Amino acid sequence: MRDWIARGVRAVYERVLRREISGVPTHVAIIQDGNRRYAREQGAEAKRGHEAGAETTEQVLEWCADLGIEELTIYAFSTENFDRPAAEREHLFDLLTEKLYEFADSDRIHEEGVRIRALGQTHRVPERVQDAIAYARQQTAAYDNLTLNVAIAYGGRAALLDVAQDVADGVATGDLEPEDVDVEAIESRLYDGELRDVDLIVRTGGDERTSNFLPWHANGNEAAAFFCTPYWPEFSKVDFLRAIRTYEAREASWRQTRTQRALALVRALGEGRGRRVLDRLGESLPDGTEPIEEAESSAD
Ligand code: FPP
Ligand code: MG
């Protein structure tokens, strides 16, 4: 009876939250933490927690498709996770392999047009996982409604180091001029294929850290962050809608801050140089911004 009431209340709350939301983030990145703690609380082995977590991942993918979110990146295996006990590591590799094949063959994935990719040093994971990644990528390569990036053997610093090395090599061989090192030059070297800027980063399980996840695309874009206490297997649609509401509130103030920053830069450096620097940073003054001189005089 109490369960039934709780479910009813949750459904109503979901509808209220859904109505409050007017715009959704384009790219959501999730640190799906708390799987082993969930299992421990249930008196189960750690692997049961990861299995339950994979079910949440499937649900979140459906919510993203329903809401019109264009890209979802999930932290499935970090470079630090290589240090876990062998049995746990191997089980995670088995689970990732199983889920990638399952997703790649799922009718829902094909109906929704979900493209699956992997990010990270995937050459470091066992061949069975690499084969599953290649299969999922190939089966879904033609789609572009929603992109699912599975971060495997991923570490943000490692990704940036790889790019730094690549840029240094390019300059050393003369393929890249130092003055051509701009946002595009970095982004084209970061991942295999384009990745949208992250608008919202979500972490479950109570820790309030973004753990070296997508530093260029999330931190660099000053993504909104939503930290919540439920363990990943418990993460509900209400939690997800709350995260999106946080993004929306943050987005309004962020737009204002960005414009003010860009204006301050153009004022300090002068119109021509200021706009060139903004261009190099991948920033711009929003359309309709008043001419700088006028803005200066009106600020006096
Ligand atoms: C962190 O929780 C999570 C992981 C190490 C792996 C999560 C991976 C999945 C849920 C599989 C999903 C992938 C697909 C393709 C569906 P934790 O182990 O650190 O748990 P704890 O914080 O309680 O210790
Ligand atoms: Mg953890």
From TrEMBL:
Single GO molecular-function term?
magnesium ion binding
Q: Organism classification, top ranks?
A: Archaea, Methanobacteriati, Methanobacteriota, Stenosarchaea group, Halobacteria
> Keyword Hydrolase, does the record have it?
no
Q: Mind telling me which NCBIfam families this protein's record contains? A: uppS (TIGR00055)
Provide the protein name.
Tritrans,polycis-undecaprenyl-diphosphate synthase (geranylgeranyl-diphosphate specific)
Q: What is its EC number?
A: 2.5.1.89
- Keywords in alphabetical order: Magnesium, Metal-binding, Transferase
Q: Which reaction does it catalyse?
A: geranylgeranyl diphosphate + 7 isopentenyl diphosphate = tri-trans,hepta-cis-undecaprenyl diphosphate + 7 diphosphate
Q: Where does Mg(2+) bind?
A: 33, 222
Instruction: Please list the cofactors this protein needs.
Output: Mg(2+)
Top-rank taxon of the source lineage equals Archaea
Give the cofactor binding note: Binds 2 magnesium ions per subunit.
One record GO biological process: polyprenol biosynthetic process
